[in-house]
Amino acid sequence: MLPTVKILIIEDSLELLEQIVTGIQSTIDAFERSDIAISLIEAETVTKALELVRNDGEIQAVVFSWDTEVKWADIGEDKHGKVDNNAVVIDAIKHIRRELPVYVLGDAIKGLDIVNLANGMESFFYRNDIISDPESILGYIINDFDDRNETPFWTAYRKYVVEANDSWHTPGHSGGASFRHSPYIGDFYKFFGRNVFVSDLSVSVDSLGSLSDGTHAIGRAQASAANTFEVRKSYFVTNGSSTSNKIILQTLLREGDKVIIDRNCHKSVHHGIIQARAMPVYLDSILNPDYGIFAPPELDQLAQTIESNTDAKLIVLTGCTYDGLLTDLKQVVELGHRHNMKVFIDEAWFAYSLFHPRFRDYSAIHAGADYVTHSAHKVVSAFSQASFIHVNDPDFDSDFFKEIYSIHTSTSPKYQLIASLDVCRKQLEMEGYKILNELLNNVDELKQQVSRFKRLRILDAEDFSKIFPHFGKDNMGHDPLKILIDVSALEYSNHEIHRFLMDEVGLEIEKFTHSTILVLLTLGGMRSKIVRLYNALKKLDQGTVSLHRSKSKSVLPSTIPPITLAELPSHAFFGQREAIPWQESAGRIAAGLIVPYPPGIPLIVPGQLIQEEHINYLRSLSNQKLTIQGFYDGELYVMRLPE
């Protein structure tokens, strides 16, 4: 299947439109490219053009005639008469798809003025030149398409593998030979196939570049990623965003530095602060016990915490929670930068945020965050452990970053992971909008169908605004591709529901609490999967399933006790420690992280004074089927008392 390059032409003069289309089409017919299909789409009005851009994700270029008459109503504005200048059309196109190149046709005499007005255009062409020599603009468009479509590392990597060079270096299986010829482990080779092994290369391949130094093909691929994500620098990480988070924290923080942190952050953020020997200032957790889900912190509390800790160096928040709740990060960045604090956003679950207008206002990069991490394997198309680090900080210390990066990065990175990041970027650039648009349409349809159910329902922004009082006040949002289903009205336990979905229907659920199940729609979320999910949910709602009706009421405590630090977390973590029964730990200083899951919020962190209310909280969880991370045979680690 060839990629289709659709070129949208906007011209309200039918005579000129016909001349332009006829000329470019004749050039296309003579154009020799076997790897792409090129077609033209015509729009006589801006209204029609914007509708096409919104609905047809295969459009890869727009040719806009500057003299086209445009009214405010054409771009959806509640104003009367003609617009001041046609730059608003380009702005409207870019609002839908930022990555879509726009080429302007106009009067050569006005060309410089047009360039000054139309900041978002790709290039300018004199209209009469296009009519007489249409090949000039087509060649320009296809050249830009090829640049956007390029995969610097994947292309070089595949070429090298196909050459089938003799391997006299690591890895030791030598292109799979040690597996292929073995009667004991040959099945391993057969299962994965030849390409997996011959493409498992050593870092001795100089032409492909160094991951730690960002050279050659790897460096070019990272530069392409930075361009797609609209940042100063992008880096590939091959051991997950857990490591990406630690790299950023250790780059920015020194011993004793204050860092304002959402308590709900991923445990890698807590570990990174320990490694950096920094002093965290925690924002409170806001938990809804009925659903077992937490919200981002209140912006009022963030503002108060900043005012009380103006010497803090960094703010760390989660841009999109596990359940899809979104923070208005523009307010966060404004608050932080006003006090010269850097802002780092863990956007692990929201890597597609830039590529659709439904998400973009909540994108960390769009908001101006200084550092952003993306787990490219979670919701977009990369292998597990593949992650992006994006840097927009004008004060970025690249030399120190590279030292920290080298501490955490293997000297033998997996080339397949690097290649997957390269092609992941390409997909987001070329068809991210198209895929996301289809997913959003599918989930809207699913919600409409499920709304007819009697007992099951999908939670949405309106529900979250009732659950969390600060939802509306803080302009929070929700990612509808995180489908959170309320199962509390069913007579089955969450474990029975999970077993039914997995064993009888073959649906693996991302996460569940005592009253919800979470389903992720990712770039691989095909419509047929959605239909199968709907079929399973319908059976549950109708009660036509063979499950034990053993609904047990499971209640989480409504509030999580606050964190009071008695020691720098790193002192407690790296100091002398001992294990004691958790029931006897009140009055002691914790030396490890204690995280009940779900909901996955740290209850106790290293350096924290454990109080009786923490013991009572743990006791209230003991009868529920929860995993307590940080417990070892019913014991937890505390700082050893002096002799």
TrEMBL record:
Keyword Transferase: yes
The protein's required cofactors: pyridoxal 5'-phosphate
UniProtKB keywords: Aminotransferase, Decarboxylase, Lyase, Pyridoxal phosphate, Transferase
UniProt-listed SUPFAM superfamilies: Ornithine decarboxylase C-terminal domain, PLP-dependent transferases
GO molecular function annotation: transaminase activity
Pfam families: OKR_DC_1 (PF01276), OKR_DC_1_C (PF03711), OKR_DC_1_N (PF03709)
Domain Orn/Lys/Arg decarboxylases family 1 pyridoxal-P attachment site positions: 373-387
Protein family membership: Belongs to the Orn/Lys/Arg decarboxylase class-I family.
PANTHER family, A to Z: ARGININE DECARBOXYLASE
Protein name: Aminotransferase class V-fold PLP-dependent enzyme
Source organism per UniProt: Alteromonas aquimaris
